[in-house]
Each structure stands twice: as structure tokens, then as C-alpha cells.
Amino acid sequence: MAIARVPNTVIDCPDPAALAGFYGALLDWKVKVDDHGWADITDTTGQRFAFQRVENYTPPAWPDQNVPQQMHIDMDVDDLDEGEAAVLLLGATKHPHQPGTSFRVFLDPAGHPFCLCQS
């Protein structure tokens, strides 16, 4: 029997509303923001990611490990070129280090790496 249920990934960032808006638009999930430095996004099944404000936030410096990536999200897309164009319009930046051909590495507006993957 499980001790807990409904795991939630919480991502540190300087502006939870902005980062939730970015990922909400990317995934077409509902965005909810509170007044206490917290925001989350939820899909229609209840899957959720949360974002919490961290003062003096330092973004990861991937692939350098002086400030490790701490976490990253891989998301599947049908077409890498179309996915790239869409996330760049949302405010992502393409990382200069691209170690593979079936995925692309981007940085969200708070500097977290994430990948768009095509199998």
C-alpha cells in the first residue's frame, strides 16, 4: 500500500506566475496563481506541476555542474522544428549545447533546462 499519492513536482524560480504561464501555454494546462509566491498548472486528469518563488534564485548552468540543473522536464513532440518554433515564441531560449539529434535542449524563462523529444 502506498504511503502517499499524487506526486507533485515543484520547481524553484524567481517568478512563479510567469513560469507557470510559460508551461501552461506550452502544455495547454490550466494555470492557477496565489498571492503567496506559488503557482501551479494542472491538466484535465489532475496531473500537476507547481512553481515556488525563491529569493536570490540562481538558474542552473547546464551542462556545467557548478550550478547543477537540479531537474529537467522531457516532453514529447510530433515535430522538433515546429515544437522549437512554438517554445521560442513562448519565451524559451535554445541552449547552445545540443548533445543529441532526437531531442533539443531549451531553457525556460527562469533558466531551467527542458527537452523536446521526438521518437
Automatic annotation (TrEMBL):
It holds the Pfam family Glyoxalase_6. Gene3D superfamilies: 2,3-Dihydroxybiphenyl 1,2-Dioxygenase, domain 1. It comes from the Bacteria. Residues 9-117 form the Glyoxalase-like domain. SUPFAM superfamilies: Glyoxalase/Bleomycin resistance protein/Dihydroxybiphenyl dioxygenase. This is VOC family protein. It comes from Arthrobacter yangruifuii.
